[in-house]
Amino acid sequence: MLNPFKSVSVYALRQRWKAGLLLFAMLIAGATLWYTESLAANLRRREAREVERWAMAVEHIVHSADEVDLSLATEIIEDNESIPLLLVDDFGTVVSSRNVSWSGSTAADTAAWIARMAQYAPPIEIELVPGVSQYIYQYESTTLGQLRTYPRALLGVMALFLSLSYYGFHRARRAEEDQVWTGMARETAHQLGTPLSALYGWLTVLEEEAAGQPNVLPLLAEVRKDLERLQTVADRFSKIGSDQPGTVADLTPLVEHSVSYLQKRLPNGVDLRYEVAPSLPEVRYQPVLLGWVLENLIRNAVDALHDQKGRIDVRAHRVGEQIVIDVSDNGKGMTAKVRRSVFRPGFTTKKRGWGLGLSLARRIAEQGHGGSLQVLHSAPGHGTTFRLALPLP
After folding, report:
1. How far is the C-alpha of 260 from the C-alpha of 262, rounded, in Å?
2. Measuring CA to CA, how many Å separate 154 from each of 76, 140, 193, 283, 335?
3. Residue 267 shares a structural domain with residue 384
4. Using CA atoms, how far apart are residues 190 and 336, in angstroms rounded to an integer?
5. What pLDDT band is residue 130 in, cutting at 50, 70 and 90?
6. Is residue 121 part of a domain?
7. How far apart, in Å, do the first and last CA atoms of the chain sit?
8. Is residue 43 one of the residues assigned to a domain?
9. Is the Cβ–Cβ distance between 309 and 269 less than 8 Å?
10. What CATH number corresponds to the domain at position 251?
11. Which of 57, 117, 50 is nearest to 86 (CA)?
């Protein structure tokens, strides 16, 4: 039977939508820049023709006799109000300039402008007399520069706006998800509370009735352990999303209790060991929630073992200003793609599973303890190590 809540496909579909939207945005940006560059190229060719006309006008004035009417050539020269031009002689001295701020310019400024203009377009030579020439250098007009800059600035502003919008919506969605998770968890704890109280009462009655039956009392003791376990689960659900800062205490009892509890309940082929560094500083934590995180990491490590046979090491030690708990296994390991998705709500590689354990564990580590939970290293066939880090108080 197909699972109607197959969340993995939902995340895959979301990734495709994101990739599609990103590709569409890149196509729009590329088309905008291409069209703008086409307009800029046309405008540049037009400006080049105007500069050629300007050069012809200058050459006409230089070679004309005194009685020739120069009004048209002069008008052509005067009409240029946007294209920067320099008229330079053979010695590199600026004879005339147009649309270039030249007051107070030094020799270095002159050389820099000439070099920039020469790189933009080859100079036009005007031969005054045989052996003596002047050169016209040109640069892009203010209009052409604005035409090139405007779409880039506009796309940059749009990208910034979309990024901020996406970040805001993402944060709002995360906050809404947190409220949903917290509400569901607390409602679950509330629903469990009533039958648990009743079961405790009935168990007390059974223990009193079985006081003279030594064969029954051990069974009732195991039932009480399971009820206490259910009570612990209910307490965990009730504390998810709480603002309680926790207490400053040693992590050793938590690690020992979690490992010893699971050692009796894991398959026989699993070798679970732990090591706590001596003189480990105390940290602030909530034992009920952090114990859940640690047990979740160990159970995930068990699921990663080949045929549930292998070794799992839990090691608590200090790294800088943090106390870290590393949970390592020698199981299947993860690919880079799985590593990127392993903490997403609903993501799972198991045939049966909701994919919520690691997501909730990270939320507890980050939001409830100000720490972090990450995949320290993993590779297919070489096992995985998860690191739970808690800051020193």
Report:
1. 6
2. 35, 21, 58, 50, 39
3. yes
4. 39
5. confident
6. yes
7. 50
8. yes
9. yes
10. 3.30.565.10
11. 117
Lowest mean pLDDT among 48-57, 87-96, 122-131, 340-349: 340-349
Token pair belonging to 347: 């993501």
Domain that residue 89 falls in: 7-140
| pLDDT band at residue 4 using 50, 70 and 90 as cut-offs | very low
316 with 369, same domain? yes
Last-in-domain residue among 237, 252, 278: 237
Residues 302-341 as b/e (b if ≥16 CB within 10 A, e otherwise) read: bebbeeeebbbbbbbeeeeebbbbbbbbbbbbbeeebbeb
* Polymer length in residues for the chain: 393
Angstrom distances, CA of residue 185 to CA of 57, 65, 136, 286: 85, 98, 78, 16
Does the pTM surpass 0.70? The reply is no
Cβ(242)–Cβ(221) below 8 Å: no
Residue 35: C-alpha distances to residues 5, 125, 145 (Å)? 46, 33, 15
Percentage of the residues of the chain whose pLDDT score is greater than 70 = 90
- Phi first, then psi, for residue 370 (nearest 5°) are 65, 25
Q: What is the dihedral of CA 49, 52, 54, 56, to 10 degrees?
A: -140
CA 141 to the chain's CA centroid = 41
Q: Which residue has the tokens 């030690």?
A: 317
Radius of gyration of the chain measured on its C-alpha atoms: 38
Amino acid at 216: V
The 10s digit of each residue's pLDDT in 322-331 is 999 999 999 9
E strand intervals along the chain: 85-89, 94-98, 124-129, 132-138, 247-249, 270-276, 283-285, 310-319, 322-329, 372-378, 384-391
